[in-house]
Amino acid sequence: MTADTKCKDHIDHKDVLDFEATYSVKIGLTILYSLILVAGIIGNSLTIKVVCILQNKGYLLKSVTDHMISLSCSDLLVLILGMPVELYSVIWDPFSSSGNIHCKVYNFLFEACSYATILHVATLSFERYIAICHPFKYKSFSGSRTVKLMCFVWLTSFCTALPLLFAMGAEDPMEPFKRYSHTFPSCNRGASNKTICTNLTSKYTVFQLSVYSAFIMYILILASVTFMCKMMSKTMIRMSSGTVSSKANQGKHEILPKHESAEKKSARKQTIVFLVLIVITLAVCWMPLQIRRIMAASKPKDKWTKSYFRAYIILMPISDTFFYLSSVINPLLYNLSSKQFRSVFMQVLRCKVSLEHVNMRTLRKHTDSSQSSTARSTRQLLHASRKYTRPPKRLTSLTKRDTDSDQCQKVSPTEPDSELTQLNPVSMNCSWKIDSDLTLQHIAIEPNRLQPNANGLSETAI
Predict the structure, then answer these.
(1) CA distance 346 to 46
(2) Tens of pLDDT, residues 236-265
(3) What CATH code is carried by the domain that includes residue 79?
(4) Roughly what angle, to the nearest 10 degrees, separates helices 306-337 and 262-298?
(5) pTM for the full model?
(6) Is 425 exposed, middle or buried (0-12, 13-18, 19+ CB in 10 A)?
(7) What family does the Swiss-Prot or TrEMBL record give for this protein (predicted)?
């Protein structure tokens, strides 16, 4: 390849100006980013408020609440740290670098908060997977373990982002092409006297390591969450069909609850639906950003052609917009997957929360059910009177011991009813016995069907 051909194919000073968007694109992106930022801050802030209300009212476990609050906080940090800085330093004035340290710290924090989001999805999925598929193991998950999971998420996120502290910095965009000025003197690839926040040419290997490791973690988390959602769905189907065992590790079996309340089943289904939706969201919204990052890591800048560079520049605002949308969509997914969350969310928006505690609601339902069943009942329950001289013929559970000589003594009508309701042969001084398999305490009699017999005992047809 000749020097002229090589110079023609690669980036020059004119191409560097493509880093700065046109004025119309700047206005459009500013409006779009502002809407995303406001919607994300309001949505995630309200999500934290709603989750706290649901947890205080007994509708959410504390472990799930901790996961959801931490996830919302990471989304808020992504929006607050990323969007204002990018709006100014990438869209409006890309060549006004505020310094090497600022560039390093910004990329490090932004990367850490970004991967804290996806790791929170993984830990929430894992926690729900254990609760549904291995309920007895889930009992060992205490509050301290949930806190440890949260610490693990943030520690892993910071470790994943740590290489960017060394790989990113302020650099002249023509720095990678300086060697062409020595190899091919006819190529004008000198310094452009401009600096941008980018991956450093001297730390290209570190940048590659960071991008590829983050991408592998992204793929593994999506695959793991998909697998756990599939297993949770299968377990829910088995439980609905009456299967009470689930194969666990080392050939053992765990007994699963065969009968659950409709509310608990509905809550678990809503959790699975939410996790499926968030996996789809992460796959769609994060993929353009991953493609752009791989483009930057797979080919050194000094080998970028003009077409490759323009494709990267076009993809940049698209990938960033989709990425920030993923931090806004989570509150919408909560509303779509949970009717209870949607109801409280609207109450918080109206500043009028009327949700009652789950215990009060359960008590009220039982009270209403008891009152309605009592109102439907038209029969009156009367205790049997003991004004008789001998046991009735129609009480088949009593057997006569001596039919010739023994007679029951009359019982005084002034004795208390609590004593009369138990037919005790000893207190009645009778030679009758009660079968051992029967405990007769009360006899229900319908008043309109009482027919006195010849012996003075009112009988009823049961």
Answers:
(1) 10
(2) 777 766 554 444 444 444 444 445 556 566
(3) 1.20.1070.10
(4) 170
(5) 0.68
(6) middle
(7) Belongs to the G-protein coupled receptor 1 family.
